[in-house]
Amino acid sequence: MLSRVAERIYWQARYLERAENTARLLNVFSNLLLDLPDRTTLGWSDLVRITGASEIFAQHYRNANETNLARFLISDPCDVSISAMLANARENARTTREVMPSEAFEGINELHYYAQSAAGKADDRSARNEMLEHIIESCQQIFGMLAGAMSRDAGYAFVRMGRALERADMVSRMVDVGARKLFAMLEDPAAPPEFAETWQGILWMSVLRSQSAYQMYRQHVRRRVNGEDVVCFLLHNEEFPRAVIHNLTTISKVLPRLPNHGEVAELVNMARSELKHSHVPELVERGLPERIDHLQIRFAVIHDAISRTWFLPRT
Amino acid sequence: MQIDWQSYDPGAFHDEVIERPGSPRRIAAGLAGYLESLDRRALDEKKLAARLAIKTMGISFTVYSDGQNIDREWPFDLIPRIIAAREWETTRRGLEQRVRALNCFIHDVYNGQKVFRDRIIDPALILDSANFRPQCVGIQPRHKVWAHICGTDLIRDENGRFLVLEDNLRVPSGVSYMLENRRVTKRVFPELFENHQILPVTEYTQELFDMLASLSPRKQAYPEIVVLTPGIYNSAYFEHSYLAQRMGAELVEGSDLVVEDDQVYMRTIGGLSRVDVIYRRIDDLFLDPAVFNPESVLGVPGLFRAWLKGNVSLANAPGAGVADDKIVYTYVPEFIKYYLDEDPILPNVPSYRCCNDSERSHVLANLDKLVVKPANESGGYGMLMGPQASAAEREEFARRIKANPRNYLAQPLISLSTVPILGEHSAEPRHVDLRPFILQGADCYVTPGGLTRVALVKGSYVVNSSQGGGSKDTWVVMGEDDAVPGS
User: Fold this and answer.
1) What residue ranges do the domains of chain B occupy?
2) Long-range CB contacts for residues A131-138, cutoff 8 Å, separation at least 24
3) Residues 6+ apart with CB under 8 A from B90
4) Do A97 and B56 make contact, defined as CB atoms within 8 angstroms?
């Protein structure tokens, strides 16, 4: 497989997954804010922080309110909007048509056009909801087509790696924001304790919902939703496909299909064992945000190694 | 809207479906009857289905406009064009003959130049040509074939006779649209395929693969074949990707290839991997910055030397474009006699060579009746349509012709045949041409039919997709009196 093609397949998977996650995030956030009383410190600016695009946002908008955020994340021409991600996914797919099943390309192509034409729906809450769900469904469908039709060779390995790394990264961001909010709340002297407890439940449930993890979590953890269990589930659960560790395992599993995978395998294993041996209750008490930062640096290092090992040399 | 052939008037032109208002040609009677039987709603549904199919299948082409690349959907007209199989058989033989002669000529130009000594053509016309590559003299490509993939443009005149308009021997494009047009028509008019015996076109990519494989310098079961594209912003990128995909070949860009010790390799995830045959879709001058344009970032340094040494095959071969020149075109009937000792099966459009004094005077005196073409442009650019041009435009061309007579030829305006398109309110006649594709490796293959391009604007003769042209599916159909081949 050509290095350039491998690179584009990988990015195509990342962009698709990122678009799906952004759609989930926006959807869940809209619902969450409807549930929460005004006095909570959680706001739309937190959503910008999760996407890691605070700077770009600040260049284009003054207020972090619902309309601006929805426009920013759905239809803005800048790189962080869903429509830009899907355009990027399509651009990458256009250049990998020879190795992808044609129905998957057709799906990506269609979704790109859909996102372009649906951009006007960002302002209206219910139309937006419907649109985001359509995008989530379509992304899932496209990955389904890839899973159903691609041989388990190098090409598919890059799809899985791109998707897994993107997921791990996004889940860790979600956990991060949840955790930061939790601390802010615990330290807020104005918040009555009984209110804090309800609030906490709603917050973590939303974090779970954004990852379609609520049901699986319920089956797995038979207690009332609480921060510690949620963080543990989203970081450490080997069985749940969106949990960080599961995605690192996925990468380890596909690596043997690729030549020269030694360095990447080593880095992935390092991240895995670090994660495995971290003690969540302690982390939730203190140091979770730092731990997550560290994890995200690990992801970046893994990406760099992937890129150095298999993609075209940068000239 | 509903189609009523009674009110369809092709006028003085040869219409390939309707002979005169109300009476379809025999070969197209089934099609015409079927179309007439569709009511307004059914036609609208078919139109919509075709648009959707094109959109989801991602059939597109890129146009350059104001410095921007716009990826446009392929303009496609639903009504297929029909050609009788018997008539096609003659055309096919004519095309094969033509490409054989052209290859003899190119090989001769670079090996021996007998054609100059025998005074068939003035050497200056060739050696001064922008497409002559002195670096290629003495090269012997496999099978002595230089132009492996040829797209020859045909038109029908007012009597319905096929004439050759030009030969595209550099990087002819359009074949993927021919294939996709068929796929769309099958989706939209499956009923029609039951009642017609239409020669299939899908084997093209297999034939292309076999032809390319026959060029491999290494004798092995699976030669490594790649399609070399200038990249996603090229107007034919869709086609490059499409052909690579259908052949199971790698689609590479210049940066994917590297030459070491005069061998060509591609960069893969497992390291460097040897390449045997390159179907290159970039122009000669961009192939290798070490030999041609040093500014080229599309090409691969060292590629030309690897080819010289016979370590890799290039299709089409560098230098093949020497025969893709509108002046050389006028000599093809003579080449057919000279190299093959045969009579040309397909006639040329009558042409005046401006390098010839008496022909040039005739051209300059009749600019208002003639079409003037530059020898080396493609895509319909830089032409003068005499009858429609303004006096100022004609003067400008007269000046250009006098300044550089070798660079121009003129032809009478041929009344191109028409085929109905599905307009807003009715079926309307529009002018068409036809580009069949001819493959020449160890064997020869001609597509049944080809890409029909149609000028969508009423009365227009300009069929290029970059200038508002569209396309149609093209059917070579067995009539009642045709035998099924092989039966």
Assistant:
1) 350-413
2) A131/A74, A132/A23, A132/A24, A132/A26, A132/A27, A133/A23, A133/A27, A135/A19, A135/A20, A135/A23, A135/A82, A135/A86, A135/A111, A136/A20, A136/A23, A136/A24, A136/A27, A138/A107, A138/A110, A138/A111, A138/A114
3) B345
4) no
Q: Cβ–Cβ of B55/A110 closer than 8 Å?
A: yes
For residues A38 and A6, give the distance between their C-alpha atoms in angstroms, rounded to a whole number: 47
DSSP run (H or E) holding A312: none
CB atoms within 10 A of CB B231: 15
DSSP secondary structure of B51-110: HHHHHHTT-EEEEEETTEEEEEEPPEEEEEEEEEHHHHHHHHHHHHHHHHHHHHHHHHHH
Q: Which of A4, A7, A114, A156 to mutate to test the interface with B (most CBs of B within 10 A)?
A: A4
Per-residue pLDDT of chain B (487 residues; tens, 9 = 90+): 789 999 999 999 999 999 999 999 999 999 999 999 999 899 999 988 888 888 777 666 655 444 444 566 678 899 999 999 999 999 999 999 999 999 999 999 999 999 999 999 999 989 988 899 999 999 999 999 999 999 999 999 999 999 999 999 999 999 999 999 999 999 899 989 988 899 999 999 999 999 999 999 998 878 999 999 998 888 888 899 889 988 989 999 999 999 999 999 999 999 999 999 999 999 999 999 998 888 888 899 999 999 999 999 999 999 999 999 888 999 999 999 999 999 999 999 999 999 889 999 999 999 999 999 887 766 567 888 888 889 999 999 999 999 988 889 999 988 899 999 998 888 999 999 999 999 999 899 999 999 999 998 888 888 876 677 889 999 999 875 554 443 3
Structural contact between residues B195 and B247, judged by C-beta atoms closer than 8 angstroms: no
Contact A4 B256 (CB under 8 A): yes
Subunit contact B56:A259, Cβ cutoff 8 A: no
Please report, for chain A, the start and end positions of each structural domain, with discontinuous segments joined by +: 1-150, 152-315
Which ipTM was obtained for this model? 0.78
Flag if B269 and A259 touch (Cβ within 8 Å). yes
For residue A98, give the nearest of B245, B253, B255 by CB distance.
B245
Q: Which of residues B284 and A77 earns the better pLDDT score?
A: B284
For chain B, what's the residue count? 487
* Contact residues on chain B for A259, CB-CB shorter than 8 A: 269-271
- Provide the shortest C-alpha distance from residue A55 to chain B (in Å): 29
Q: Do the Cβ atoms of B252 and A6 come within 8 Å?
A: no
Residues 217..236 of B with a Cβ closer than 8 Å to A: which? 232
| Chain B residue with Cα closest to A158 | B269
Q: Encode burial over A179-195: b for 16+ CB neighbours within 10 A, e otherwise.
A: bbbbeebeeeeebeeee
**Residue B486: what pLDDT?**
39
Query: Are residues A2 and B271, on separate chains, in Cβ contact within 8 Å?
Result: no
Measured between beta carbons, which residues in chain B are less than 8 angstroms from residue A102? 57, 245
8 Å CB contact of A2 and B245: no
Query: Which of B245, B269, B274 is best to mutate for the A interface (most A CBs within 10 A)?
Result: B269
State whether B253 and A4 contact (CB < 8 Å). yes
Please report, as a single letter, which amino acid is at residue A113.
Answer: Y
Q: Is B242 on the interface with A (CB under 8 A)?
A: yes
Q: Closest Cα of chain A to B140: distance in Å?
A: 31
The answer to whether the Cβ–Cβ distance between A312 and B267 falls below 8 Å is: yes
Give Cα A231 to chain centroid, integer Å: 15
Which class is domain B350-413?
alpha beta
Which residue intervals of chain A are DSSP H helices?
3-35, 44-51, 54-60, 66-74, 82-94, 102-117, 125-149, 154-186, 193-210, 214-220, 227-236, 244-254, 262-276, 280-285, 288-310
3 state SS of B446? strand
